[in-house]
Amino acid sequence: MSTTKKIAGAALAAALGVTTLSACGDAKDKTAGASDAPKSKTVTLVSHDSFNVTDTVLKEFEQQSGYTVKVLKSGDAGAALNQEILTKGSPRGDVFFGVDNTLLSRALDNGIFTPYEAKGLDAVKPEYVLDKEHRVTPIDSGDICVNYDKAYFADKKIAPPQTLDDLVKPEYKNLLVTENAATSSPGLGFLLASVGKYGEDGWKDYWSKLKANGVEVVDGWEQAYNERFSGSAGGKKAKGDRPLVVSYASSPPVEVLYGEPQPAEAPTGVATGTCFRQIEFAGLLKGAKNEEGGKALVDFLVSKKFQEDMPLQMFVNPVTKDAALPELFTKHGVVVEKPENVAPETIAKNREQWVKAWTSLVVK
């Protein structure tokens, strides 16, 4: 995907400081004299821009492990992954976080990870473990879904849509705004939801109907959600007139958390029959300078402490069975029981041609 624009990246006011490290040396240099060299006390996490963790939680890991964590943020997930492929064998850090199921096969095919079975992996729900060789470890999940403006549909006395099929009905004509599948993570996710639902033979027909029903396409999430969508705080200020938008299942809790004043109920809802599930992974980079520190860091990312901290830091869901969701999520969020999924290898094989076909059909 071109962009991993998440709710976390737009909503969070605080973020970890970025330490830029140069990639130098190669895997062969690391073995020579390794037994005589002091062990590095620094472990570097390479990530997309939306990574975040509470300072006290990170400090606790550093104190317990003896490692100092440096975070190298590298733009969106696609750009960050590209750089790791280009520096394969001489990585910029020790662990990469942020490759998701839409890019997973590309990362694995390029061999940038060293297999490592994380301590605590047994607590991860089995459906998230997509790589049986443990080259990557599941860290979080999130659902890309159509969100709706509750006030609009209440005022119009129209039931909000709940499924992909609903979106092509006449009553929802000219109401939906989505992101460009070629330039946006949620845009691509919504395209993949249609592939998962209607299959490779049916998704184009669905988009033809959606286009005929007045779907609007914009470049990215920020424009769609904070400018065109009438239900968000930003959209209200911008006088957005589209009451349906492709965003995330975690968007309603964010609207509550950052509302001024904070509302008792989320002003937006989620059409749970429109969703595509993203799963994000972390992996130990092949040629890591601090492999032991990298392993400890991957263990930390699946620990209960990090998994329970993560929802309010990155607005994604934990993947472990023992992690409890914060009240903000349980009170104002939704559980997506049956999201659409497409196998990573199928995505890898068809992504480019799907996006090209989608662009010709919907944008041009």
Largest sheet: 10 strands, mixed
Termini Cα gap: 20 Å
The percent range for strand residues is: 15-25%
The run of helices and strands is HHEHEHEHEEHEHHEHHEHEHHEHH
Query: What's the rounded overall pLDDT mean?
Result: 89
Number of helices: 15
How many strands appear in the DSSP assignment? 10
Rg value = 21 Å
List segments where confidence is low: pLDDT < 50 over at least 5 consecutive residues. Answer: 1-37
Structural class: alpha/beta
Helix proportion range: 25-40%
Shape: globular
Please give a structural write-up.
The protein has 364 residues and is an alpha/beta fold. Helices cover 37% and strands 18% of the residues. Strands 1, 2, 3, 4, 5, 6, 7, 8, 9 and 10 form a 10-stranded mixed sheet that branches. Helix 3 links the parallel strand 1 (42-47) and strand 2. Helix 8 runs parallel beside helix 15. It is globular.
Itemize the secondary structure elements and their pairings.
Layout: H1 7-11, H2 27-31, E1 42-47, H3 55-65, E2 68-73, H4 77-86, E3 95-100, H5 104-109, E4 113-114, E5 137-149, H6 150-156, E6 176-179, H7 185-198, H8 203-212, E7 216-218, H9 221-228, H10 233-237, E8 244-248, H11 251-257, E9 268-285, H12 291-301, H13 304-314, E10 317-318, H14 327-332, H15 344-363
Parallel strand pairs: 1-2, 1-3, 6-7, 6-8
Antiparallel strand pairs: 3-9, 4-9, 5-8, 5-9, 5-10
Helix pairs in contact: 8-15
Provide a brief overview of the structure.
With 364 residues, this protein is α/β, with parallel strands linked by helices.
From the structure above, extract its key features.
364 residues; 10-stranded mixed beta sheet; disordered N terminus; single chain; 15 helices; 37% helix; alpha/beta
